[in-house]
DNA sequence: CACTATACCCAAAACGTTTTGGTTTGGCAA
DNA sequence: TTGCCAAACCAAAACGTTTTGGGTATAGTG
């Protein structure tokens, strides 16, 4: 059926050792036989089997890409897609394969994360989209398998992470709003089970305190990162606190929902209420007014995560926590 | 290092044959020894190696997911992410693994699609995001490897496809505009190298002709599926044809760009110009006015593609062309 | 001529499974 | 006793590679 190294060897009149060595660029095979072998291989359409290779080499050159709750992650694509692209490009460039892993049921029975990975002999894993209260969290953190989390600050012997410097991102954002003269600044945060929410909250608090402004608990609302959540949170904020002149959102999606709500209430953005988002998704440029936001480098996060994992795998580097700098992009909404 | 079936066998005092058979649910191993084996395996943390298994079984239980131009596909996430989720969920459910494949350079040298897949012994491939003029197209079509394209109508002995019924989608959409009294209806299509563009154009033409309306060539513009493309195309259309009262777009992104343009020109949607998009991306609900659109079932497309591929693999079914029904969702923009 | 160095090549073992074609054991009927 | 059967187990081959530890010429050197 499939053509093997043995077929090539027979056809070329050499041993399989020689074929193998010819293919792997060893020096102890003459130019002549090498040419012959390559030519025979070509004519037979021979492709070396990675699985046989993996078996004997005891390494698969492949890592898992774990995306939590793939199917029930509305709006997740705005963030995750670019990260995946970054991870993919970097790993593919280094010759590593990517296998998709999910936390959801496979074959109807729940298979443990670590079982899945060791059965496939994955050499490492990149984890994304996971909540802090996800039951798999523990497993990932404790596994003796090199892994790096994206927006998931777990650090251990085998486990590093990459995320945007959310404390500073939020801090810079709020600081900008303050610099524009705002004093009553609301904050619509994401849900508390996202690591980023914790940091962004701290950034907000820090910026307010640094400016000598009081941090009022009921200026802060936890929502869901999505447009509708931003809308309802905004309504609540504005009804209870008419003095508010600016709102900072922990995601662009919520900010877009917020702008919509504000405009529906007959107020102007940024005239009456300034709006600042977080993420810099493509659509921020296309809403009216154009959304100001704290930008995350999503593709670069993927690349950084891949690099960290490769560092562990290839050069036994220690995992760490890598923070990528955010940047402020001011458009029209603030 | 890693614990193998041999370790389990030794520790349990049986042969590796018996361990294997115990694990695979054969009947000729007594309850007692089976219990013993399972217990030993548990205590040793034994996990059978899929790679050894693949080698002897001559099947990997894994398929490729090929995403064309992963990194240079702005806006692609709106469509591709959900499809990927569908493909993933279905295949994971059936116990198949997914390996990411891209058309881009791996290890700096261009590796052929078919080489990539056979080296890894992938059993099939699902291809998405590919243009008709992609150099890989030919290769996919001619490969003796079961594959199904998404929005890529190539049909051969080994190659099927899944797409939305774009002819009817466009036809229904335009028909709706006509039913609302519009007679001068522009069409902003995607680029001609996308299979869907061909079909949507035909749908537009059909609907116009069925209503006895003339199809004017310069009412039709080919653009790029993206917001900015929609914006410029709209400006062009409206400047040259002030009589136009409705525009149909081949993507929601372009429709959103179009609405922005129309509003910038001081006209009202849908009062002056009615707008109808295509895709039903999440943001259509959150622009003002809310976007009317032809909805595609993205997740279901992924599931259908996975199902077709599995049908070929598991039950030797013939590949075919599966068309999923679109549906009209009318909101405020038309 | 004997010895050594070099260039080229190869047999066999190993990787961790599955499966084939057995063997062994004990029980039971004739 | 013998023969037969079923239940429980196993040795060995196979899957397609890589690598180790050689071997055999040929050419060069003293």
From TrEMBL, chains A, B:
Keywords: DNA-binding, Transcription, Transcription regulation. PROSITE patterns: HTH_LACI_2 (PS50932). SMART domains: HTH_LACI (SM00354). InterPro entries: HTH_LacI, LacI/GalR-like_sensor, Lambda_DNA-bd_dom_sf, Peripla_BP_I. Residues 3-57 form the HTH lacI-type domain. One of its GO terms (molecular function) is DNA binding. The keyword NADP does not apply. It comes from the Bacteria. Pfam families: LacI (PF00356), Peripla_BP_3 (PF13377). This is DNA-binding LacI/PurR family transcriptional regulator. It comes from Alicyclobacillus tolerans.
